[in-house]
Structures are given as C-alpha cells and as structure tokens.
Amino acid sequence: MMEEEASICPNMPYRLLEYITAGLRSTVDSEKILYSSRRVYFPVPKLYMVQAGVEEKRQGITTVRYDMRLSDSYKSYEGKPETVPEPDIEAVVHVYDFRMTLAEVLDYIENGTVPERLHDYTGDLLSDREVCNMTMATFSREEIREYQGWERGLEEGREEGREEGLIKQLVMQVVKKLHKNKPVDTIADELEEEPEVIRRICLAAEACAPEYDVDEICARLINL
Question: Is residue 185 scored above 70 in pLDDT?
Fold first, then answer.
C-alpha cells in the first residue's frame, strides 16, 4: 500500500492502517470463512509514503528514508511517557522523502545535477534520476518559472527593504542635525556623506518643517 504526498502528514500511519485493513478484508470470501476454524491467509502488508514536489518553505531536507509509527501517536497517561504500555497495535510506514528545494529543482533542470543527499540513497525504490524526474513531473515548466520569479521577487524585496531602511536611518540622522540648525556642508561632513545626498534630503525636509516627519521626508525624496 503506497500513498503519495507533497507535504508531511503525521497521521499517515493511521490512514494507511485503515486503507490496508479495507484491502485485507476484501480478500476474505465470506463471513463464514472469517469466523470458522480454518485459518485465513493474507498477503504480507507493506506500507509506504512517497513525498515528492517542491518544498516551498525551503526547510532543511536532509533525510531521504525514515519510518513513521502509529505508536508515536499514542497518548501517555498523565503526560508521563514512561507510563505508556506496550501497544498491541502497531503500523509502520516507510517514508521516502524525495522533495526538492527550488534551488535543487532549478539546478537539476539547468545542469542535470542530482541533489547531494540522494547520492547516499541506496535506491531500493527508485534511482536518484527517477526520483528527480518524478518531482519534475509534479510541476509544469511554467509553474517552476513562477516559483523562480517568486523567489527572485522575494530577494529583490529584501534588497529594496534594506535600501529603504538605510535611507530612513540617514534621514533620521539629518533631521537631528537640522533641529540644531546645522548647514548642509557641516551635516555632510559629520555624517561622512556626499553633500549632494544631504542637500536632497534637506530640500525634502524643508517642506516638512518644523516637525520634520521622517516618513513624509522619505516619501518626498522619491519625487526629487
């Protein structure tokens, strides 16, 4: 029994337990056989979860193969783990986390580079190339481009935010000097900035005197 997911689901052991129970029940021909003295034989159940897709939040993906257990969801008594009795029902799901980060996806598309963590994967289910191709099949090239544009826009937004923060900090420093009636050249010298830069800030500040609202000054600088 195998389930494919794009994200982690801690309830997968119980979900697959329900699925496999329904599947095993279908192998019993009748209620009479089930309740008779004759043993009913079943195929050996195996539970797998395959995770494939792009990890949008870019969390660290380091482990390819691990197990999830139903017993991890059993409650302890009075909040004490040591009081949990040995469970009589267990379900083990073998997880294969083949998700890729956006950077890994783009590197595979452009250069054919397989993520390093997959190099140590033994390939008991799929080869590393099949894993990557399966992830690629989850998304169209247009969707990958959208992710790429989103990531680039996010970085540009961070850069723009840093620049705006530096400008606002400089305006605040200039305003303090203006409250002391210092001339442009003196302010530029004390702040170690180009006189032309300080002159533009002072020009924008003149329209905001005597309060010198910093946000309004920054807004006026855009139109100068």
Answer: yes
